Amino acid sequence: MTTAAAVSTGAGNSGGTGNAGNAGDADTPYALSHLDALESEAVHIFREVAGEFERPVILFSGGKDSILMLHLALKAFAPAPVPFALLHVDTGHNFPEVLDYRDRTVARHGLRLHVASVQDFIDRGELRERPDGTRNPLQTVPLLHAIESHRFDAVFGGGRRDEEKARAKERVFSLRDEFGGWDPRRQRPELWQLYNGRHSPGEHVRVFPLSNWTELDVWQYIAREKIELPAIYYAHEREVFARNGMWLAPGEWGGPKDGERVETRQVRYRTVGDMSCTGAVDSDADTIEAVIAEIAASRLTERGATRADDKLSEAAMEDRKREGYF
Amino acid sequence: MSTHTIVDPVDVAGTAATSLLRFATAGSVDDGKSTLVGRLLHDSKSVLADQLEAVERASLGRGQEAPDLALLTDGLRAEREQGITIDVAYRYFATPRRRFILADTPGHVQYTRNMVTGASTAELAVVLVDARNGVVEQTRRHAAVAALLRVPHVVLAVNKMDLVDYAEPVFAAIAEEFTTYAASLGVPEITAIPISALAGDNVVTPSTNMDWYGGPTVLEHLETVPVVADPSEDPARFPVQYVIRPQTPELPDYRGYAGQIASGVLRVGDAVTVLPSGRTSTIEALDVLGEAVDVAWAPQSVTVRLADDLDISRGDLIAPAAAPPAVTQDVEATVCHVADRPLRTGQRVLLKHTTRTVKAIVKDIPSRLTLDDLSQHPAPGELAANDIGRVVLRTAEPLALDPYADSRRTGSFLLIDPADGTTLTAGMAGSAFAEAAEAAAAAAAAADDDAEWDF
Predict the structure, then answer these.
(1) What NCBIfam families does its record include (chain A) (predicted)?
(2) Which of A124, B35, B172, B200 has the most other CB atoms within 10 Å of its CB?
């Protein structure tokens, strides 16, 4: 017996309206919104790791993507606590609001936080400060050291595939060798929802539960779930100076050089990383609805607008991932 | 069609039920696939200024006049240097009507496994052909992969219509040939659209050069194609991922079975059986991520609590007592081999099915399938990278396995190398194609080849 195919070619159908009569999906009682679908997928990933790994850890910086990851992890295991520790790779150049948020969150949920500090490595002479003061590229060494010394076998990162072209090729389960390296040509094919986390001793797996989320999805979900964020994500007055087309905030990491002038502006942050390479954007969006409206209308990608570390070269992210970066 | 903005400004909290469509593209660089994807992203206003500037800079650097949209989908350094695509890339865009996840798969011969990967999660596949060349071997291969992976909707995009003077007969002949072929493989729904990705005809904007075409543009079709089949028509399948036991003073006896509903609908009060043990109970409570509900459906992630205290752990499957899957240790399947090292008869492997991983032996490889003409080659002895074939497996423990034709989620599995964890093979339990295609393929096969195609 044969299945008759529904065929449509539209030819000889001049002036027709195609399938414009289709009512879409809202009329089935079993529809899921895109946020529900993404949430369900992320929770499935968290539970999969909990079922298959011995010592998982969540990278947690106090930035919005890691806050979202933690929120999803809390949902995945409720009413029991999250069965993972947190790891913060601390560049030493943090926004105070973000560190404060980090510590409050850890206390509220009774979580265990490990901190891997770039400053410690610099003090011990194992890392050297870069002339530009940027410490993001220095995070890889402390990260790998923490993974090795705590024997973490799965490391959750908040990376999204919409962020950057090398990340577009990343897997949900990304196998890393003992050097933490990412080889795009040696990735395992990822089929259906069957994630293969098997690895040899010394290897570990980076897991990206937000792989399929976009910046807008993240913000819409934060709004829907009423998740608190550090205040720097909303418009506030701040002293900034312009460098490489970005507004940077002076701090212990450094400040304006000759010819760079500090001024007070109304700004907010789209991403939060090391202070030396995270730029603010001019904004008066002081509510989440206003932030979402600005993002929806923005003509710049999140990293393109605000991350100096990605502008270093055409293949900056790809190179850092090969060395063991997130 | 009205012009698109990325998001409707009144929908800032995402409360409107925007649906999510996962789709895959197949076609080669020469067919203009990168240009089509670039055009979709560009014309749906999903390309942001800094990405476009980078493309314009690169295009000018190569001496091109207009920005080369194919560059938008450029990935890694090796790919730029060699002008190839080495892997599946995922791209994201949205219109006010829908959110899209695109698995962009390279279309060279040796990359069958990439298209299989992209198609495995896709609800729709776009197969691209060059109007000047029509249906070629590779087109047939793409149609066969879409049929094998049971992708519900297939779009044939007949590209470069500008190079054949936008002639309707050219399009009609290609659409006819492809549709006949794909329908014979059991593809349930095929839509053919004449386009020029380079000029933008019928990708996002309706073509003014093809008045004879009255159907939707590619984007319109993507926006309106039904995303969800009705889950209430499928038997419920719930693979247990993780057992939640807080063991706190407040919740000393709580035992929740956490997982994602693989198919169908679960209701409080349902009589269920737990496989492979066969013990029965009823659903006492359903919890969708913190909210108690009476009903939940695929693909929701939920926590199930049962009325009886049973010994249930990760890898077990909860199913309706009235419609459980067969439990077996003998698996027959169509597979795509995805590793560089071959799969051989007698090989010991791990088989990962839903949340359960068991040891297995490859008992037999009855045939290898050539996708170009669906001819079968009996007893190949091994399968190499990108080969499609039939395998017979024996597992160390019973599996609650559905035919892939009935459930892509509970009928699929991976074979894994126990030595180092490499993913070897992607498997689909049961028959390869829809019944009509099976019969045709069996009739066309050599008379002495009596491979078992049906359970």
Answers:
(1) CysD, PRK05253.1, PRK12563.1
(2) B35
- What residues contact residue B190 under an 8 Å CB cut-off, 6+ apart? A5, A6, A7, A8, B154, B155, B156, B178, B179, B182, B183
A-chain residues near B188 (CB < 8 A): 3, 5-6
Any B CB within 8 A of A177 CB: no
How many structural domains comprise chain B? 3
Q: Which residues contact B233 (CB under 8 A, 6 or more apart)?
A: none
For A:185-244, CB contacts with B below 8 A are: 185, 187-194, 196, 198-200, 211-212, 214, 216-217, 220-221, 223-224
Q: In B, which residues are within 8 Å of A298 by CB distance?
A: 48
* Bridge partners for B314 per DSSP: none
CATH assignment of the domain containing B142: 3.40.50.300
- CB B227 to CB A25 under 8 A? yes
Question: How high is the pLDDT of residue A308?
Answer: 52
C-alpha distances out from residue A85 to A9, A57, A58, A146, Å: 55, 5, 6, 12
Sign of the Cα pseudo-torsion (A282, A288, A294, A300, in order):
positive
CA distance B30 to A1: 38
Domain of residue B414: give its range.
327-437
The answer to whether A16 contacts B215, with C-beta atoms less than 8 Å apart, is yes
Q: CB atoms < 10 A from the CB of A149, how many?
A: 10
**Which of these three, B276, B305, B320, is where a domain ends?**
B320
Mutate to test the interface with A, among B56, B300, B351, B408 (most CBs of A within 10 A): B300
Structure token pair of residue B370: 């050539």
DSSP, res A296: H
Tell me whether strands B279-288 and B291-293 are parallel, antiparallel or unpaired. antiparallel
Is pLDDT of A228 > 60? yes
- How much is the pTM? 0.88
Say yes or no: B333 and B304 in one domain: no
Q: Of A148, A135, A152, A270, whose CA–CA distance to A207 is shortest?
A: A152
- Which segments in chain B show pLDDT lower than 50? 1-15, 436, 443-455
Record: contact A78-B289, CB cut-off 8 A: yes
Does CATH place domain A34-215+315-323 in 3.40.50.620?
Answer: yes
Distance CA B411, CA B401 (A): 6
Q: What pLDDT, on the 0 to 100 scale, is given for residue B51?
A: 64
Instruction: State the residue for tokens 């393929």.
Output: B441
pLDDT digits (tens, 9 = 90+) for A230-247: 989 999 998 898 887 788
Residues from chain B that touch A162, judged by Cβ atoms under 8 A, are 91-92
Give chain B positions within 8 Å (CB) of A212.
90, 92, 101
Instruction: At B191, list the tokens.
Output: 């839509």
For CATH 3.40.50.620, the residue range(s) in chain A are 34-215+315-323
Cβ within 8 Å of B, A 88-107: none
Burial class of A276 by CB neighbour count within 10 A (0 to 12, 13 to 18, 19+): buried
Nearest to A168 among B91, B116, B436 (CB): B91
- Residue at B59 is within a domain: yes
